[in-house]
Amino acid sequence: MPLSLPVEARLLADQVYERIHQAIMSGELPAGARLRVRDLAAQVGTSVMPVREAIRRLQEAGLAESSPHRGAVVKALSLEELVHVYEVRTHLEALAASGGAARIDSAGVERMENEFAAMRRSLDDHRAVDYLDHDEALLATLYDAGGNPVLVDTIRSLWQRCRAYKIVGAAAAIAVEGDSLWRYQRMLIDAARAGDAAAAEAASRASLLDATERIRQTIAAR
User: Fold this and answer.
1) Dihedral sign computed on CA atoms, order 48, 51, 57, 58
2) Confidence grade of residue 8 (pLDDT, cut at 50, 70, 90)
3) Cβ contact 146:96 at 8 Å
4) How many CB atoms sit inside 10 A of residue 56's CB?
5) Which of 83, 101, 135, 145 has minimal Cβ neighbours within 10 Å of its Cβ?
6) What's 98's DSSP letter?
7) Model confidence pLDDT, tens digit, residues 49-95
8) Do residues 208 and 89 lie in contact, with contact meaning Cβ atoms separated by under 8 Å?
9) What is the pLDDT, as a whole number, of residue 170?
10) What are the Cα distances from residue 220, in Å, to 67, 98, 207, 215?
11) Which DSSP letter does residue 67 get?
């Protein structure tokens, strides 16, 4: 049975996918940005075939979509998707936070503290993407401690799918310089240090409900 792409083309498609994926994760390619095949091929120095394959994979991952008269675009923000994705995240991450807080050791708590400090520095410098990277590292440390890799992998895939929403929400919160981007993480660390599963679950739910409303207001205002 012949392979869909020659080996070299598949390797190039992997590289192109990583380049575009990183641009989406960093906000360099924001929601709604067009993914012009020939332009991307010229930028990364390949033929159009690996670019088309990479875009197909991005669509399968929920990071890109086809738009009438525009071709492939970075998936647009949608209030409906926001509600659906964050509802699922709330249930799964509350479970992961509870399990992690019950099992995390002192070294794990210390890693959370280090990520929290880096996260606060990113906020002080108004670096939303760096903030999100440290926030996810903090949460992953807690969730990994729960010992359920399937749960953590599912959460990570949801983080990727809603990265554009997270960037919008973080940027909006940074602009008003409130404490909503770090208050709940502080609560999670304290719960983890105390081994308080119930407090960790409550903090996780409160954090995601707060984020959902903040992002909803930002999208609606647009």
Assistant:
1) negative
2) low
3) yes
4) 14
5) 83
6) H
7) 888 898 998 888 888 888 777 788 888 888 999 999 999 999 999 99
8) yes
9) 92
10) 21, 32, 20, 8
11) E
As a whole number of angstroms, the distance between CA 203 and CA 93 comes to: 10
Q: What share of the chain is helix, strand, coil (3-state, %, to 5)?
A: 75, 5, 20
| DSSP secondary structure letter of residue 72 | E
Written as one letter, the residue type at 136 is E
pLDDT score of 2: 38
Dihedral, 159, 160, 166, 167 alpha carbons, nearest 10: 150
| Separation in Å, CA 158 to CA 145, 164, 214 | 19, 11, 18
Q: Please say whether the dihedral angle defined by the alpha carbons of residues 194, 196, 197 and 200, taken in this order, is positive or negative.
A: negative
CB distance 173 to 123 below 8 Å: no
For residue 157, give both structure tokens.
């895939």
Whether residue 1 has pLDDT greater than 50 = no
Specify the DSSP element, H or E, that contains 43. Answer: helix 37-44
Quickly tell me which residue has 């929920």 as its tokens.
62
CA distance 3 to 107: 46
With a cut of 60, say whether residue 9 has pLDDT above it.
no
64 backbone dihedrals φ, ψ, rounded to 5°: -140, 165
Q: At residue 123, does pLDDT exceed 90?
A: yes
55, 21 in Cβ contact below 8 A? no
Residue 199's pLDDT band (cuts 50, 70, 90):
very high
CB 108 within 8 A of CB 142: yes
